[in-house]
Amino acid sequence: MSEIMIVGIAGGTGSGKTTITRRIVERFGNKVSVVYHDNYYKAHDDLTYEQRCKLNYDHPNAFDNDLFLKHLKELKKGHSVSCPVYDYTVHNRSEKITVINPSKVVIVEGILIFQDKRICDLMDVKIFVDTDADVRILRRIRRDVRERGRSLESVIDQYLTTVKPMHEQFVQPSRKNADIIVPEGGRNLVALDMIMQRISNHINK
């Protein structure tokens, strides 16, 4: 296998990161692998569900970045990794793991992946998805209520107490570490086309 390229896709909650990742996977299939930073939330088996609900999941300390880095380095070397699987409905890691095999291109997605210099240094291409805050909160409400079984009240409360302030403190400032800034996420077809071309060039080397 030729050198493995790591592509980071960051941006605030509901910015359209997953849409871009999904489009890349639809286009290239098993020629790309995907690692979601969300799966590396720290395990909290010692806490009750009520206590876990109160944790700040938008702070850099919520993630097990040491394990995340270790796995990225293994993938970069061409080795498979056993990735934890996070369960949003219980705010904790599940018992499951998922095996991620290396490909020519590894996509890494998460809100805070550009906040840690060690992670940034491993990436070959860093893309920040920049979307208006009003659009992002509406998308988050729709996703969390429909897909994650959350109440509207809890989503809004979490957004105002941790998501918004943490976005302003950590996520938005990490934008300066990006190579490419994509306004409007997956709807930006010009940017998407450029990203696809860059990935295609690497795969076809």
What does this structure look like?
The chain is built from seven helices and seven strands. The protein has helices at 17-28, 49-53, 65-76, 117-122, 133-147, 152-171, 189-203, and strands spanning 5-11, 32-36, 81-87, 92-100, 105-109, 125-130, 180-183. The longest helix is centred in the C-terminal third of the chain and has 20 residues, at 152-171. The protein is globular and about 50 Å long.
Question: Could you name the key traits of this structure?
Answer:
205 residues; alpha/beta; five-stranded parallel beta sheet; two-stranded antiparallel sheet; 7 helices; 41% helix; 21% strand
What's the arrangement of secondary structure elements?
Blueprint: E1 5-11, H1 17-28, E2 32-36, H2 49-53, H3 65-76, E3 81-87, E4 92-100, E5 105-109, H4 117-122, E6 125-130, H5 133-147, H6 152-171, E7 180-183, H7 189-203
Parallel strand pairs: 1-5, 1-6, 2-5, 6-7
Antiparallel strand pairs: 3-4
Helix pairs in contact: 5-6
Strand content: 15-25%
- Helix percent reads 40-55%
- Biggest pleated sheet: 5 strands, parallel
By DSSP (H or I, 4+ residues per run), the number of helices equals 7
What would the principal axes of the Cα set say about the shape?
Answer: globular
What's the overall average pLDDT, rounded? 93
SS-derived structural category: alpha/beta
